Amino acid sequence: MIVNWLIGGPQGMGVDTSANSFARSCAYAGYWVFGKREYHSNITGEHSYFIVTVSDKPVHSFRDKLDVLSTSDERTLRLHINDVKSGGAVIYDAEISLEALNIKRDDLVFVPIKYNEIIKETAEKFGLGDVKKLQVMRNSICVFASAGLLELPAECVEESMKHIFTGKRTKVLEPNKYAGLVAYKYAQSFSHKIEKKLPKREVETKRVILTGTQATALGKLAAGCRFQTYYPITPATDESEFLESIAKKYNMVVIQAEDEIAAITMSIGASLAGARASSSTSGPGFSLMAEALGWAGMNEVPIVVIDYQRGGPSTGLPTRHEQGDLKFAIYAGHGEFPRIVLSPGDIEEAFYIVVDAFNLAEKYQCPVIVLEDKLLANSVKTINQLDLSKLKIERGKILYDSQNGKMLKKFKRFEFSEDGISPRVFLGHEGFIFWNSGDEHDEFGHITEDPENRLRMHEKRLKKLQKIVEETPVEKKIGEFGNPDSKFVVVTWGSTVGVALSALEELKEEKGVELFLLQIKMIHPLDAELVKSKIKGKVKIAVENNYSGQLASHITEKTGEFFDHLILKWTGRPISHDELISALEKIIKMNYKEKRLVLSAGI
Amino acid sequence: MQNFQSIYRSDVESDWCPGCGDFGILSAITQALGELEIPPWKCAIFSGIGCSGKTPHFINAYGIHTLHGRPLPFAIGAKMANPSLTVIAISGDGDGYGIGAGHFVNAGRRNVDITYIVHNNGVYGLTKGQASPTLKRGVQPKSLKYPNLNDMVNPIALALASGYSFVARGFAYNVKHLKEIIKQAVIHKGLALIDVLQPCPVFNTVDTKEKYMERIKILDGNEFPTTDIKKAFEKALDEENLWIGIFYKNPEKQTYEERYSEILSSYPSECPANLKMSDEKGNPTTDISEVLNNFLC
């Protein structure tokens, strides 16, 4: 059972907060949720909306078609009314004339809410004064009305509101609750007219509800990262702001740098001193980091960079979703140096992969780029309680020997070794010194242009890539879902894994079609043999939120295997469950001849 | 105790040109660190790109030769991660006042306890003499195809305006004077700029050592350093005389480390670099359950 709910309104008026509150309410009632946020690059006024998909089973993606459209303004009503499924319900402001808007949907249940009247009454009861300033209360009213309509217990909404009205806002909790309950009771009287309900249910497991940026931040914290830098950029900033909110207890130094060049170079400096250090950014900022990535590669410094991809190139679609940075992440920076590119498939995996990222960075002494994206960053999802016992900290080769007052040791930081990895000491390590240089250097780190040294030193660094492929366990390189014997293999990465998984499940359950889904988690270095063995001989379909099918072409380059179909989307909106199903069906059942299949659903 | 002064000079041979002012700066740095008896392993020296960028290789300390224009943010990262380090950043004028100008200004806003030494010779020496941000408009050293079209930046005034809590200028051929400034800058709690006039004997055919000698005057030790920023600006903006010495010093200004210590519960005694992040078996020691509880459902 799935209930698909949408709330919309002017940007900056609390749509995001209301949606998170509704999602949390459903989670408290024992449901699984996936919430997708859409917003403009604008502070206030433009239309933004949030879809929350609620289910009694784990849910991996949002849906297009709505069961409940929850509105308090005219624009949301107008823009989304046609997405409501027959038999669905619409919550709207009783002062709006449906007739005037030419809305003729007699297949829907309309729930008129007297927002102004409720707000006025609440203001009088609590002596709140200016009613105009209380319009933000529409959000709570809207959420409570939705809950009433869906028979979602009011106490679940009240509980979730406590998480929103914190700090200075605690004092408005009661008025919001009061206003909300008025709407709740009224909307309840319509619930017999709709089929789907959300009564309280027993929860199978202990769960948490997190956004992608929060899961990523928590991964950093658990991994021992205490140094984070950033320059404000959508959609990455939320992660750093979340870390700032918990920095005090954990002694985490979070620095808002003057630009992304400073951000990454500060992190490299901190890493040299022995900290686990990271920077988070999005495409434009990641572009600025390219030169410093090379320096970290050249000097074998562990560093973790999160790139939350958004629509590019240039400023692109700053608040919209895209997976356009894959090739750039693999190649960013001039010259050749080792780096690792990882990409989590969902919010839960983001937490664990970030911990892996720090371990890999330190083990192989190189930059690790974690490719996330806007959908992953801003979505909210119920996931299994994070299992901290699964985590391990691996710091790689570090020398803790002390010189104990002996002569100063000029440490060969880049000593040639069997496996290409030389032990590290940190700045300030007693009795030692070493040098680093972005110039080609000898074992001590001093500049040299000697060809013999270059031959060995360049290879010392680059041969780590092979070692990374060999030593990383399969389950950290790829994810496998569905039927491996299927004739069709769907290959994807990043948050698109969610919708692919969701489509796969429905195709199996409702159409009896079984597909094999291959997720690439370690994009670079790619385990070409492994990937090849999984896709060879099958009809290969890549699903990506970009124009050129970057993962597909990367795989082709490394494996020699060509893709039969590319399902692509670059409108800045993530691929939806419904459109992916129809695209896959076209290929599977209709013998679709074209290689490219372009999607465009969503506003 | 080891004789730090003698061990601060590394055995790496320098490839600077004969007569280069960089030699004087190098000597002043190694002497200052030696006299301060700072163990080399407590000291991290960051540099940018250009002739000045090579300096750390000639010093026995942790020497990090970074990117063009970026030694400051690298150095800030290291210092904030481990505030017990003595951190020095070294730039050239192109590095510090050109490509790294954004970092120059923003570092001032933070006042991290770092010493920043900028080799200032008016040209991009290593790329054969193009105009740097400190070259006067209208002059034409030998590599320029026509007289310089850009006005020069005034590093002392810029540092004062940006919030540096210690602002000084030295002369590469007055090693003793420079060494004393460096010692004071390292001791100073906060961000210290030392702009060092360091004529490039090969490419700056305009501002030669001799020309500098004519104009240089040493600030009166009774009046300077001052905490009166207006007085410091006055000297910085003096077009007739080229003042060297410490213009401004404000040890009262809160450092970035101190500002963070007010925000974080036990920084800097617990700092990012000394976190014990796991037990012997590699299990993480960070307990995130308190944060996670807010998200339980």
Over all CA atoms, what is the radius of gyration of chain A?
26 Å
What gross morphology of chain A would you assign? globular
Using the CA coordinates, give the radius of gyration of chain B. 21 Å
The third-level CATH topology of the largest domain in chain A is Pyruvate-ferredoxin Oxidoreductase, domain 3
Total tally of structural domains of chain A: 4
Q: Beta-strand level of the residues of chain B, as a percent range?
A: 15-25%
- Across the major sheet of chain A, the strand order is 6-5-4-1-3-2-14-7
Strand order of the largest sheet of chain B: 2-1-3-4-8-7-10-9
Largest sheet of chain B: 8 strands, mixed
Uncertain spans of chain A: none
Indicate the mean pLDDT of chain B. 96
CATH hierarchy, class of the largest domain in chain A: Alpha Beta
- Uncertain regions of chain B: pLDDT < 50 for 5+ in a row? none
Q: What portion of residues of chain A belong to β-strands?
A: 15-25%
Count of runs of 4 or more consecutive helical residues of chain B: 11
- Per CATH, the class of chain B reads Alpha Beta
CATH topology of chain B: Rossmann fold
The CATH architecture classification of the largest domain in chain A is: 3-Layer(aba) Sandwich
CATH superfamily of the largest domain in chain A: Pyruvate-ferredoxin oxidoreductase, PFOR, domain III
Pattern of helices and strands of chain B? HHEEHEHHEEEHEHEHEHEHH
Q: What is the first-to-last residue Cα distance of chain A?
A: 25 Å
Structure explained in plain terms:
- The complex is a heterodimer of chains A (603) and B (297).
- Chain A has 603 residues and is an alpha/beta fold.
- Chain A has 4 domains: 2-193, Pyruvate-ferredoxin oxidoreductase, PFOR, domain III (Pyruvate-ferredoxin Oxidoreductase, domain 3); 209-390, Rossmann fold; 397-471, no CATH class; 475-598, 3-Layer(aba) Sandwich (Rossmann fold), CATH 3.40.50.920.
- Helix content of chain A is 38%, strand content 21%.
- Chain A is built from 21 helices and 24 strands.
- Chain A has an 8-stranded mixed sheet. Chain A has a 7-stranded mixed sheet with strand order 9-8-10-11-13-12-21, sandwiched between helices. Chain A has a 6-stranded mixed sheet with strand order 18-20-19-22-23-24, with helices on both faces.
- In chain A, strand 19, helix 18 (496-511) and strand 20 form a beta-alpha-beta unit.
- In chain A, helix 4 runs parallel beside helix 6 and helix 9 (260-272) packs parallel to helix 11.
- The two termini of chain A are 25 Å apart.
- The mean pLDDT of chain A is 96.
- Chain B has 297 residues and is α/β, with parallel strands linked by helices.
- In chain B, the strands form 2 sheets. An 8-stranded mixed sheet of chain B has the order 2-1-3-4-8-7-10-9, sandwiched between helices.
- Chain B starts with a helix and ends with a helix.
- The longest helix of chain B has 14 residues, at 22-35.
- The model of chain B has no long low-confidence stretch (mean pLDDT 96).
- Chain B has one domain (4-259): Rossmann fold (3-Layer(aba) Sandwich).
- In chain B, helix 2 (22-35) crosses helix 7 and helix 5 (101-110) crosses helix 6.
- In chain B, 54% of the residues are buried.
- Chain B has 11 helices and 10 strands.
- Classes of the chains: A alpha/beta (603), B alpha/beta (297).
- At the A-B interface, helix 1, strand 7, helix 7, strand 8 and helix 8 of A face strand 2, helix 3, helix 5 and helix 11 of B.
